Amino acid sequence: MNHLASCIFACTLFLWCILDEASAFRWDAALRQRSSLSVCEGQNLTIPWAFQLDPGEKAEVFEWQRKYGLDAALTITISEVKDSGTYTVIASITNAKNKKKKYTHTVSVLVLVSPATSDGRMHVAMLPEPVIVGSGTEVDYHARLSCGTFKNLGHPPVTVVWTLPAGVNMASTTYQNGTFYFDVPNPVVSGLYSCEINSTDPALDCVDRSSDLKVGDSVFLDGTDIQLKLMNHKLQAERNVRQGKLEKERQRQEGLESKLNQESKKLKDLETKLRHEQSVLETKVDQVEKKGNGFSDCKEVQGLKKMHWLTSSKKFSLRIDLTDFHGKTAYAKYDSVSIHGPRHGYKLVVSGYSGTAGNGLMKPVRGQTLKWQTSNNQPFSTPDHDRDYCSCNCAAERRAGWWFYYCAQVTLNAPYTHKEVSDVNRLVWYPWKKWKTLKATEMKIRPKE
Residue ranges of the Ig-like domain (predicted)? Predict the structure, then answer.
């Protein structure tokens, strides 16, 4: 109970204090707190702030303030856009008991500026070229309408509303440099398309009632004709794209062809250079051979050169086929053969014998006293350049160039006979026919797989 009594006493004291400080001051209802006012640019605006007092009250001070800055008067003369803002009046009131209290009242002011076009009218027209909407492969062509031309859009800036033949209102697609643009939806419907300032824009209130800006403008579109034009533009654009791709491909091929021609010319120049270098090198080799080795430029030497180049480039095997005057044949095959260069006297190196004629190039026949009469690992001798190990000149005696060591048990370059005779200085292969002459011989090389 004591707690409840204390609470009732406190509440009663609080209400008494409120009633004691209460004032009958009140703002006139003509302009409510936080109201909004508008005025056209260049006109005067009086803010109708009024109030009522009870007997015994007096208003001592009224302070006029404007949001974000400057003091303002009750009346705005020749209003400008910069005068827009929030205005507040602060009233200092003294009641009958000489107690002071402050009251505030706030209102927003918007200074309107009328929009203006270049000739006082709005003009609607269709652009001569369609616009592309979308990107990549998802593109479409649309007819575009223009509405303008505005010198300024007023304050706050106005917008326009486009009305389609079906009565549907739509906003502009874009605005640029005083002109509103509208992309007509596809398929284009025939009829009137109009453009007018949005009736909800405050700045429209400052436009003179007789101004053409109040009514806007319209244009008639033939939907069928426009659709055909759009299709033609799209087809032409696709043709241009294809032609562009073909042109790029043509240029690319021309570039490749030019590059190939350049590379071909480089290869031809390189071939010419290599041929010249080869010619110079062959000349030097011939000079060295003639001077240092004593070989004449005979057919045998020319063949040895080719054999050396061939067997130096890859591995070859050698096959020798022999025929006697009775029609019998035999052969000797060597798995490996090579001819060394002129510095080594075109030395013959063979290995890996097989066949029916006997190993005449590598192994002397059993019973022979001159076991060194083999051709393997021997340089090539000619009558004018003796390189064998005999005190005689084997090539001169045999009248043939061959790979002689101490002469040899085979000679396949010796003079030919037309009948079989026994002559060591003729065409012979001792392991097969001893010193009996042969009717035909063949030496062949083949690249190894």
Answer: 115-205
Would you state the structure tokens that stand for residue 387, as one six-digit string? Answer: 């390189």
Question: DSSP 3-state assignment of 57?
Answer: coil
Helices (H), 289-403: 299-313, 394-398
Please state, as a whole number, how many other Cβ atoms lie within 10 Å of the Cβ of residue 387: 21
C-alpha closest to that of 148 among 127, 131, 170: 127
Tallying the residues shown for the chain, one arrives at 449
Q: Are 413 and 400 in contact (CB under 8 A)?
A: yes
Question: Do the Cβ atoms of 211 and 204 come closer than 8 Å?
Answer: no
**Maximum Cα–Cα distance for the chain, whole Å?**
172
Burial class (CB in 10 A: 0-12, 13-18, 19+), 194: buried
Distance (Å, whole) CA 243 – CA 297: 67
Residues 6+ apart with CB under 8 A from 272: none
Residue 307's nearest CA partner among 361, 255, 349, 357 is 349
| Cβ partners under 8 Å of residue 71, min gap 6 | 64, 65
Distance CA 276, CA 444 (A): 31
Show the tokens assigned to 95: 């009641």
Quick check: helix, strand or coil at residue 375?
coil
Give the start-end residues of each E strand in 299-409.
Answer: 316-323, 329-339, 348-355
Sign for the pseudo-dihedral over CA of 215, 220, 223, 226: negative
Residue pair 78/44 in contact (Cβ under 8 Å)? The answer is yes
Rounded CA gap, 447 and 428, in Å? 27
Three-state SS at 227: helix
pLDDT at 233 over 50: yes
Per-residue tokens: 194? 């109009």
Model pLDDT for residues 307-366, shown as the tens digit of each residue: 898 888 889 999 999 999 999 999 999 999 999 988 888 999 999 999 999 998 987 765
Q: Is 192 helix (H, G, I), strand (E, B) or coil?
A: strand
Burial of 44-61, coded b for 16+ CB within 10 Å and e otherwise, reads: ebebebeeeeeeeeeeee
The whole-model pTM stands at: 0.49
Instruction: Name the nearest CA neighbour of 64 among 112, 109, 26.
Output: 109
Burial class for 162, CB neighbours closer than 10 Å (0-12, 13-18, 19+):
buried
Bridge partners (DSSP) listed for residue 27: 51
- Collapsing DSSP to helix, strand or coil, 440 comes out as strand
